[in-house]
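Practice problem. Given the sequence and the SMILES for pyridoxal-5'-phosphate, write out the predicted structure.
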Amino acid sequence: MKRIYLDQACTSFPKPESVPIAMAAYIRNLGVNMNRGCYSEAYDVEEKVFETRELLCQLFHGDDVKNVVFTKNITESLNVLLKGFLKPGDHLLVSSMEHNAMMRPLTQLAKQGVTFSRIPCESDGSLCQEKMEALLQPNTRMVAMLHASNVCGTVMPIAEVGEFCKNHGLTFLLDSAQTAGILPINMEEMHIDAVAFTGHKSLLGPQGIGGFVIKEHLIEKIEPLLSGGTGSISHTEEIPEFMPDRFEPGTMNIPGILGLREGLLFIKKNGRKTIAEKEKALTERFLHGIKGCDRIQVVGKETMHNRVGVVSIIIEGMDPAVVADCLDREFQIMVRVGLHCSPSAHKTLHTYPMGTVRFSFGYFNTEEDVDAAIAAVIRIAMEESKWN
Ligand SMILES: Cc1ncc(COP(=O)(O)O)c(C=O)c1O
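Answer key:
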């Protein structure tokens, strides 16, 4: 029986074929470092890395290619941006749907005197925008928020949040983990000051590569979290002030960047909208298919309005862990179970502490995959006593 991967929100799989090919070709045939060698192979690598920055700058409508910074994932990017920007005494707003990649750095910062308020969300994950104003304090400096929930797929109104930030002189930091390469993100039009991204989800690259795109005016306000050799201005022991070196110490993950480059080229070639439409159609098919079974409850939105291809469910009377185990062992279907690193989101959705079973769909999934998941989950729900 074919194994079916429906955990795309965790990491996308498979990748476009060009991703492993480019990574293997680099390791096998080229292998040299960047910003260090004065030979043509090093210049070739530098050019490809520059092209990757260009693709990301275009995708997010950044103001300058040099302001695209590579890190190892979005978690590192959020750490760099939050810890570099916020000082003791500062306050910020976050949504009640955030991932621990946002909340754990903030919990650490809270011990140093940074405070935060959670903007409430409805029980389907949608942001209560009208409550933002009342949460502002004289020391509020930032709004930091995910674009779409990794638990239930609900999309945040980031253009409106950007407008709010602009009107109140606040810095807007966006976590694009579940939307980059799927939904439009326009830093200029949406007044986003920094977008953090991760390469291995909907950007279709490998694990271990991520980054952020930052607007020029914010650069000097972020104190670098990490420092070290950059291959530039080697006569001094000071951190370079120029970009991207200010935030890119140490040897870079070049295979990762080259794999990400292929993911980005694939998105460009096939079209972000086409990819999004396919994911949407698969997600809609799944939502429609499980609708008839009243033992299955969709957590969050039941329609495709303002959502991405992430669907959490619970089955009446069943532990989500048992459901996921059945899906894996009996039906060969891989999903995620539990709290998905997002306790606050589950409190909002009233699924804490039990969690949910999460299905997430990607470009390389098929209608057959979705139909198999529908049939499996309905069977588990109807034969609950057999599995429990
Ligand atoms: C909304 C959100 N933010 C942050 C992350 C963390 O991503 P990474 O592990 O690639 O740093 C995830 C991963 O699931 C996520 O869904």
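Check your answer against the key. The radius of gyration is 21 Å.
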